[in-house]
Amino acid sequence: MPVVDHGVADLAPIAVAAPILGAALLMLLGRRVPRLALDVAALVVAAAEVALVADVFATSTSGRVVTWVAGWTPHKGYSVGIVLVNDPVGAGAALCAASLVFLALLYSAGYIDSVHGHFHCLMLLFLAGMVGMAMTGDLFDMFCFFELMGAAAYGLTGMKVEEESSLQGALNFGIVNSLGAYISLVGIGILFAHTGSLSLPILGRDLAHQRPDALIVAAFVLVLTGFLVRAAMVPFHFWLADAHAVAPAPVCALFSGVMAPLGAYAAFRIYWTVFAPVVPVGDVRRAFLVLGATTAVVGAIMTLGQRHVKRLLAYSTVAQLGLLLLALACLTSQGTAGALLDAAGHAGVKGALFLIAGVLLDLYGTMDEAELFGRAARHRVLGWLFVAGGLALAALPPFGTGLGEAVSAEAAVSLGYTWVPAVFVAVSAATGGAVLRVGARAFFGLGRRPVEEDGAPSSDEEPDVHLRRVPVSMTVPVVALLLAALATGVLPGARSAAERAGAYFVDHAGYVSQALTGAQAHMAVHARANWAALGVGLDVLSALLAVGIAAAACYGPRLPALLALQRRPMRILRAVHSGRVGDYVAWLMVGVAVLAGLVGLPLR
Amino acid sequence: MSIYAYVVAGWLLVMGSLGIVRSRNLVHAVVCLGIAQSATYVLLLGVGYQRGAKPPVYGSAPAHPSLHVMDPVVQAMTLTDIVVSATVTALLLALAIQIRKRRGTIDPDELTAIEG
Predict the structure, then answer these.
(1) I want to staple A436 with a disulfide (CB 3.0 to 4.6 A). Which of A32, A55, A383, A550 is the partner?
(2) The total number of structural domains that make up chain B
(3) Candidates A161, A179, A577; nearest CB to B36
(4) What is the pLDDT of residues A363-419, one digit of tens each?
(5) What is the predicted ipTM?
(6) Is B79 helix (H, G, I), strand (E, B) or coil?
(7) Which residues of A touch B39 (CB under 8 A)?
(8) Residue B116 lies in a domain
């Protein structure tokens, strides 16, 4: 069976296994070697992983890299083997994960309590889960890596075992996500019973031309549920803020930057490879436009109402994931390209913001916006970096987030959804504005001192470490992440590359035939300039609005009437985010029913 | 395979989930999660079951093994699933115990460390 290049095709399984071996090694060494050696060893493994994945990614940009693990190639169109299919999107997601883990390890080096290497070990297992999930072309394999990633993530969230909120956040995270994964597994079982296969290309080929009957719709909804829980789609999103508020800052950067977006990646990967020919495009598009917009708006409102900095950033991630779903929901290669650029830019920006929040926590021992007021004034550089992150979150050109939102907005407009750009502008302005407000208050002491009743009660939180000054190993990752976000929007050809990757991602027939017969598929897109007038206009508008929102929050008069207007809905919305895992599971069941209704009812 | 196994699987999934919704005890919630997961075991094994079929063990015997065997793929999936569940359940129970130690309660209604 012909493959692109045997060397690189063989590298893909190694890229999945390497971090697991590294983690095992670190567990062995954990108690025997000094902390410095652990940091160095983990960094070396992560750097090697970046190099491995970068090699696969570079090859995948000129065509998919297909690997049937251990040579179980298809025989007469069927195989019991597991296939890894690396297109630029999958390999790119893996590259993003590996780079972010490297930077998070650099940030933690010497500071975050390692607990005899357990922290490093969990980080590497987490990385293996993410890389495996991004590369695999097999449904059950995807479930396994999803759970590996999940188990490592629950452990990382609950690292601070002496802290009650940390434990409770990890438990909520674990129960909701595992239940989601089991619901996905039920869907996988149904699909297997229906087709006798687990590999995405075979499933896609065998399901094509079938009628979308109740069984297929049920399988579609159930399989996607687990991944959409990870993607924090409303009403599955409750766990995300609980987990982010309590996890160590470098772990939060990974959760927001890659883990949650990978959920959306997996959901749409499964849609495109398996269900695209069966479930009508119109239904899926409508369902995800509705759910994406709801997610974005709920996330934005919750962001504005927070004063715990990490919870605020977490809700802005929910809003951003909503925008990502909106872009993917266009179900076109251009929409997918927008989502890719947005996700890449967001990974850098949100990673940097969480790392700065972590520094603040370590310096001042609090995450409360009111208590931080004016205290960080001597860290001007960090302050400007935080402001830059806020502006990038508000989609200011030329950051990658801005480019991604511009491309997504164009994709939605070309389909006739003119309301989508309005959601993009409003939501990025709100989340960016909230971050700018925090930056202005904490680093520059602008405006009035916020009073106690201004926001939700914040939980007490122990810092990851106690710092007196900010070490270089903490600032370097922040700068690197912001530069990466900038590069996504500035590098010439970024847009063309994303559009080519998007074209590979949505190419159902090419995916199936290349995985099963080895027929090479090449995607040609004509080169385009990154920025177009419409996108720049929208982005500048949302950045200006964000500055306005921040200024209004800092300097604006207290408006009792306005507050009274927003108070009641805010109270209801906050009461819904109760912190009780039972409520979250109830919402999960509601969400499954809503998704089934949105996709299934129009088919009747 | 009769419809019975599928009904049981659906019942377990729904009851497990409802159990978590109504739970007043975190250990109880984690066990309910395990019940919801056992739905997947029943479903997977039900999918691979054939009446009167042999186990999928060939050893060195026939050159043309009978095709009338249980599906080994779902059995492998179930085993993997059990491993996953053991890991997650152990981790979640450890967290619940730790919460009890710190807080003296595992009633989710009395835990108020996280809100809004």
Answers:
(1) A550
(2) 1
(3) A179
(4) 998 888 888 998 999 899 999 999 999 999 999 999 999 999 999 999 999 999 999
(5) 0.93
(6) helix
(7) 182, 186
(8) no
